[in-house]
Write a structure and sequence with these properties.
11 strands; 23% strand; 205 residues; 8 helices
Protein backbone atom coordinates (compact mmCIF):
# COMPACT_ATOMS: atom_id res chain seq x y z
CA UNK A 1 0.00 0.00 0.00
CA UNK A 2 1.32 3.49 -0.79
CA UNK A 3 2.12 6.14 1.79
CA UNK A 4 -0.72 8.36 0.59
CA UNK A 5 -1.22 11.87 1.97
CA UNK A 6 -4.94 11.64 1.15
CA UNK A 7 -5.31 9.00 3.87
CA UNK A 8 -4.04 11.53 6.44
CA UNK A 9 -6.91 13.91 5.69
CA UNK A 10 -9.71 11.44 6.18
CA UNK A 11 -10.53 11.40 9.89
CA UNK A 12 -8.97 11.55 13.36
CA UNK A 13 -6.51 8.73 13.99
CA UNK A 14 -7.35 6.18 16.67
CA UNK A 15 -4.37 5.47 18.92
CA UNK A 16 -3.79 3.28 21.96
CA UNK A 17 -2.97 4.79 25.38
CA UNK A 18 0.79 4.17 25.26
CA UNK A 19 0.96 5.63 21.74
CA UNK A 20 -0.25 8.97 23.13
CA UNK A 21 2.98 9.33 25.11
CA UNK A 22 5.16 8.33 22.15
CA UNK A 23 3.44 10.78 19.81
CA UNK A 24 3.44 13.61 22.36
CA UNK A 25 7.20 13.16 22.76
CA UNK A 26 7.75 13.20 19.01
CA UNK A 27 5.52 16.26 18.68
CA UNK A 28 7.71 18.16 21.16
CA UNK A 29 10.87 17.14 19.29
CA UNK A 30 9.37 18.14 15.94
CA UNK A 31 7.66 21.31 17.21
CA UNK A 32 4.24 19.99 16.21
CA UNK A 33 1.01 20.83 18.00
CA UNK A 34 -0.95 17.65 18.63
CA UNK A 35 -4.19 17.09 20.53
CA UNK A 36 -5.82 13.88 21.74
CA UNK A 37 -9.38 13.23 22.87
CA UNK A 38 -10.39 10.12 24.85
CA UNK A 39 -12.47 7.69 22.81
CA UNK A 40 -13.56 4.55 24.69
CA UNK A 41 -13.42 4.78 28.49
CA UNK A 42 -14.23 2.59 31.49
CA UNK A 43 -15.21 4.03 34.85
CA UNK A 44 -13.34 2.66 37.84
CA UNK A 45 -15.81 3.15 40.69
CA UNK A 46 -13.05 2.59 43.27
CA UNK A 47 -10.88 5.54 42.22
CA UNK A 48 -13.64 7.56 40.57
CA UNK A 49 -11.81 8.05 37.27
CA UNK A 50 -12.53 7.05 33.69
CA UNK A 51 -9.79 4.91 32.20
CA UNK A 52 -9.20 5.67 28.52
CA UNK A 53 -8.49 2.56 26.46
CA UNK A 54 -8.24 4.48 23.20
CA UNK A 55 -7.81 8.04 21.99
CA UNK A 56 -8.42 10.07 18.87
CA UNK A 57 -5.49 12.09 17.55
CA UNK A 58 -7.37 15.10 16.25
CA UNK A 59 -6.88 16.70 12.86
CA UNK A 60 -5.35 20.16 12.70
CA UNK A 61 -7.12 23.37 11.64
CA UNK A 62 -6.67 22.43 7.98
CA UNK A 63 -8.35 19.07 8.46
CA UNK A 64 -5.22 16.93 8.19
CA UNK A 65 -2.98 14.90 10.47
CA UNK A 66 -0.79 17.27 12.52
CA UNK A 67 2.28 15.27 11.53
CA UNK A 68 1.64 15.73 7.81
CA UNK A 69 3.78 18.28 5.96
CA UNK A 70 2.79 18.48 2.32
CA UNK A 71 2.82 14.82 1.29
CA UNK A 72 5.38 13.79 3.92
CA UNK A 73 4.60 12.08 7.23
CA UNK A 74 7.06 13.48 9.77
CA UNK A 75 6.89 10.37 11.97
CA UNK A 76 6.86 7.75 9.21
CA UNK A 77 10.36 6.52 10.08
CA UNK A 78 10.16 7.38 13.80
CA UNK A 79 6.93 5.91 15.12
CA UNK A 80 3.96 5.53 12.83
CA UNK A 81 0.74 4.82 14.79
CA UNK A 82 -0.64 1.30 14.50
CA UNK A 83 -3.83 2.55 12.84
CA UNK A 84 -1.79 4.28 10.13
CA UNK A 85 0.31 1.17 9.58
CA UNK A 86 -2.75 -1.05 9.21
CA UNK A 87 -4.59 1.37 6.90
CA UNK A 88 -6.70 0.60 4.88
CA UNK A 89 -7.52 -2.56 6.88
CA UNK A 90 -9.39 -0.94 9.75
CA UNK A 91 -11.95 -1.90 12.39
CA UNK A 92 -15.52 -1.21 11.38
CA UNK A 93 -16.82 -2.17 14.83
CA UNK A 94 -14.98 -2.34 18.14
CA UNK A 95 -17.31 -3.54 20.86
CA UNK A 96 -16.30 -3.88 24.50
CA UNK A 97 -18.48 -5.97 26.78
CA UNK A 98 -18.21 -5.97 30.57
CA UNK A 99 -19.14 -9.14 32.42
CA UNK A 100 -19.79 -8.04 36.05
CA UNK A 101 -20.13 -11.65 37.22
CA UNK A 102 -16.85 -12.95 35.81
CA UNK A 103 -15.36 -9.44 36.19
CA UNK A 104 -13.98 -9.64 32.73
CA UNK A 105 -13.64 -7.32 29.73
CA UNK A 106 -14.42 -8.93 26.39
CA UNK A 107 -13.94 -7.50 22.93
CA UNK A 108 -15.45 -7.99 19.51
CA UNK A 109 -13.68 -6.41 16.52
CA UNK A 110 -14.80 -6.58 12.90
CA UNK A 111 -12.46 -5.34 10.16
CA UNK A 112 -13.10 -3.95 6.68
CA UNK A 113 -11.05 -2.47 3.85
CA UNK A 114 -11.58 1.27 3.97
CA UNK A 115 -12.70 2.98 0.75
CA UNK A 116 -11.11 6.18 2.09
CA UNK A 117 -7.97 4.75 0.49
CA UNK A 118 -8.04 5.70 -3.22
CA UNK A 119 -6.14 2.54 -4.15
CA UNK A 120 -8.76 0.33 -2.51
CA UNK A 121 -11.54 2.38 -4.10
CA UNK A 122 -10.10 1.84 -7.57
CA UNK A 123 -9.00 -1.78 -7.04
CA UNK A 124 -11.96 -3.37 -5.35
CA UNK A 125 -15.60 -3.71 -6.29
CA UNK A 126 -18.35 -3.64 -3.62
CA UNK A 127 -18.43 -7.45 -3.81
CA UNK A 128 -14.66 -7.62 -3.27
CA UNK A 129 -14.96 -5.34 -0.25
CA UNK A 130 -17.48 -7.71 1.32
CA UNK A 131 -15.09 -10.62 0.73
CA UNK A 132 -12.30 -8.69 2.46
CA UNK A 133 -14.12 -9.12 5.76
CA UNK A 134 -12.68 -12.64 5.67
CA UNK A 135 -9.16 -12.23 7.03
CA UNK A 136 -7.95 -15.14 4.87
CA UNK A 137 -8.82 -13.13 1.77
CA UNK A 138 -7.78 -9.75 3.17
CA UNK A 139 -4.30 -11.03 4.01
CA UNK A 140 -3.76 -11.88 0.34
CA UNK A 141 -4.51 -8.29 -0.66
CA UNK A 142 -2.75 -6.42 2.18
CA UNK A 143 -0.58 -8.85 4.16
CA UNK A 144 1.50 -6.27 6.05
CA UNK A 145 -1.53 -4.19 6.99
CA UNK A 146 -3.46 -7.24 8.21
CA UNK A 147 -0.49 -8.30 10.34
CA UNK A 148 -0.35 -4.87 12.00
CA UNK A 149 -4.10 -5.05 12.61
CA UNK A 150 -3.57 -8.38 14.38
CA UNK A 151 -0.81 -6.81 16.46
CA UNK A 152 -3.13 -3.95 17.40
CA UNK A 153 -5.82 -6.38 18.53
CA UNK A 154 -3.27 -8.17 20.73
CA UNK A 155 -2.32 -4.90 22.40
CA UNK A 156 -5.97 -4.02 22.98
CA UNK A 157 -6.46 -7.47 24.50
CA UNK A 158 -3.46 -6.96 26.76
CA UNK A 159 -5.06 -3.85 28.25
CA UNK A 160 -8.32 -5.75 28.67
CA UNK A 161 -6.62 -8.73 30.32
CA UNK A 162 -4.68 -6.61 32.81
CA UNK A 163 -7.75 -4.59 33.79
CA UNK A 164 -9.81 -7.78 34.08
CA UNK A 165 -7.18 -9.22 36.40
CA UNK A 166 -7.25 -6.07 38.56
CA UNK A 167 -11.05 -6.26 38.62
CA UNK A 168 -11.05 -9.90 39.70
CA UNK A 169 -8.57 -9.12 42.47
CA UNK A 170 -10.74 -6.27 43.75
CA UNK A 171 -8.39 -3.40 42.94
CA UNK A 172 -10.90 -1.83 40.53
CA UNK A 173 -14.66 -1.92 39.92
CA UNK A 174 -15.34 -1.35 36.25
CA UNK A 175 -18.37 0.16 34.53
CA UNK A 176 -19.04 1.68 31.12
CA UNK A 177 -17.45 5.13 31.13
CA UNK A 178 -20.11 6.53 28.77
CA UNK A 179 -22.54 6.58 31.70
CA UNK A 180 -20.25 8.82 33.76
CA UNK A 181 -19.20 11.64 31.41
CA UNK A 182 -18.20 14.09 34.16
CA UNK A 183 -15.61 11.92 35.87
CA UNK A 184 -11.96 12.83 35.15
CA UNK A 185 -10.10 10.79 32.54
CA UNK A 186 -6.76 9.06 33.02
CA UNK A 187 -4.67 7.47 30.30
CA UNK A 188 -5.13 3.68 30.38
CA UNK A 189 -1.40 2.99 30.30
CA UNK A 190 -0.74 5.38 33.20
CA UNK A 191 -3.61 3.83 35.16
CA UNK A 192 -2.31 0.28 34.71
CA UNK A 193 1.19 1.29 35.77
CA UNK A 194 -0.20 2.26 39.18
CA UNK A 195 -0.56 -1.47 39.75
CA UNK A 196 2.03 -2.82 37.28
CA UNK A 197 4.97 -0.38 37.48
CA UNK A 198 7.23 -2.88 35.72
CA UNK A 199 5.25 -2.41 32.49
CA UNK A 200 7.01 0.01 30.14
CA UNK A 201 6.11 1.63 26.86
CA UNK A 202 8.87 -0.41 25.20
CA UNK A 203 7.01 -3.56 26.21
CA UNK A 204 4.12 -2.44 24.03
CA UNK A 205 6.02 -1.20 20.99
Amino acid sequence: MPNCALCCRASPVTVLPHEVYVLESLARDLDVRVKFAPAYTLLDAVSGVRVALSYLMLLDGEGKCPFLRGTKCLVHNLYKPLTCRSFPYLPKVIKYELDPVAKEIRMEINFVMSTLCPVVKSDLSPRDLVKMRDIRIAVQYAPKEVEVARETVEKRLLYARILSDLWQKGYVELQDGANSPFHPVINGFAFIRRFRPELTIKDLL
